[in-house]
Amino acid sequence: MSNSLRPKTLGQLKAAGYVSRGVKEEIRGNLVRRLRAGEELFPGIVGYEDTVIPQLVNAILARHDFILLGLRGQAKTRILRALVDFLDEEIPVIPGNPINDDPLHPISAEGRRRVFEEGDDLVVEWLPRESRYQEKLATPDVTIADLIGDIDPIKAAALRLPYSDERVIHYGIIPRTNRGIFAINELPDLQPRIQVGLLNILEERDFQIRGFPVRIPLDVQMVFSANPEDYTNRGNIITPLRDRIQSQILTHYPRSVEEGMRITAQEAWLERGDRHVDLPRFLREVIEEVAIQARESEYVDQNSGVSARMTIALAETVVSNAERRAIRLGVAHTTARVCDLAAAVSAVSGKVELVLEGEQEGPLNVARHLIGRGLKSYFARNFPSAFPKKRRGQPTEEGLANSEYKEILEWFAAGHTAEVADDSGDAEFLEALDQVRGLRRVASRHLKPANDAELAVAMELVLEGLHQHSILTRDRVDGRAVAYRDMFKSMFSSLGGGDEA
Predict the structure, then answer these.
(1) Is the pLDDT of residue 246 over 60?
(2) DSSP β-bridge partners for residue 183
(3) In what order do the strands lie in the sheet with 418-421?
(4) Are residues 462 and 411 in contact, defined by beta-carbon separation less than 8 angstroms?
(5) What is the pLDDT of residue 501?
(6) Superfamily of domain 257-382
(7) Domain boundaries, the chain
(8) pLDDT (tens digit, 9 = 90+) per residue, 415-441?
(9) What is the average pLDDT score of the chain?
(10) How many CB atoms sit inside 10 A of residue 395's CB?
(11) Where are the alpha helices (DSSP H) in 295-451?
(12) Which residues have C-beta within 8 Å of that of residue 230, sequence separation ≥ 6?
């Protein structure tokens, strides 16, 4: 409704036939309308189409208060904030009223007084949907006064009113969200004595302040989020409160690499203006594999989880390292490489919570380990085994010689070294890798690169995959270059045997 057509007084509102409805009925009605129209319900929420979203729809249709249980980085807060889209664009309120009183059905003493005194001449304001959502992060220092309110002794003295009069209340954030949605994130962190204050709001929709009962029928959609470990094991949510939260909905991490890639592509900042960095699909898959490996790693606290923010930060850092190379070389276009992934350990080390074994290894070593595990897993899934023949579970020389990597391994066995530099240009990078006999053929067959720049990265990935499977050794030559060599020759050289060994 345009500003010029909106009713501006209570009389005009009545004449327009406006009908008030509770916030839960309002959310339900708008959800039903969008379901009938076949509209997307939660834009930007990936991977929950058949799991979480149907449960959310059921909770809203049932007019439930609900809680989202999930590890960090599972879009819980984004889902809660998306509920705003199910509210009406605007609703009428009494201006200056702290609890968004409905002009047609005021619930506060002040609202009823103004309607009685001003009648149909009462001015009406329109509150946008964005102002009807509030959230609070539960922390140990949150008080009842913050959430519900407190008595204002100065106001009581000035108005000469007893403390039992609701007009002396300084309202907290929940009453101020009347006719809206109120979210509490990380509910278990709220102290039990504060949780008790939510019981009446959830069930009877009224509250007490300092022992004085205040019968104000609040109209609030209450929603919560929590870590399932906190919710079920620590006992930090009191049983009566848990009983009053009518729906419990479990979230989860992406269930496939494809879903993870969609989330990362949606959230990561990969377009860098005047410099274009191409991030090949196979490198995007490796980035998602790093997160998958982290969620299974013995070094990482699985109760804390591994947020999707890790893959987002990792993709952004990989692109940044490639962008830095493009700036130094003075080119407008470049392609991200495996070495850029290796340089992005900072995006991993700060995104995982380590257990004791991980702390002993050190954050950077664990980050390098996870990136290596991701590369190894991707290589094993997309390339044939380098050890097709085994004897008692161990690779044999015959197996290596007859493998698809025969030409590559023979080239390295002859004493050659493949040295690639992080700061080399695309043409120079490809030329260095093209010296390895058979490498181009293997990379092209299994990764199908779109151009020469992607081909070079695919060839680098093959060498890195062979290194992660302990077939090739990789040594840091200087600050910006690495050298791949035959594993057995390197071992013998380190023992002092030289070529004869």
Answers:
(1) yes
(2) 135, 223
(3) 418-421, 481-486, 472-478
(4) no
(5) 35
(6) Magnesium chelatase subunit I, C-Terminal domain (1.10.8.80)
(7) 10-250, 257-382, 394-494
(8) 999 999 989 999 999 999 999 999 999
(9) 89
(10) 18
(11) 309-329, 338-342, 346-349, 356-361, 363-382, 397-401, 406-413, 426-434, 439-447
(12) 186, 188, 189, 236, 237
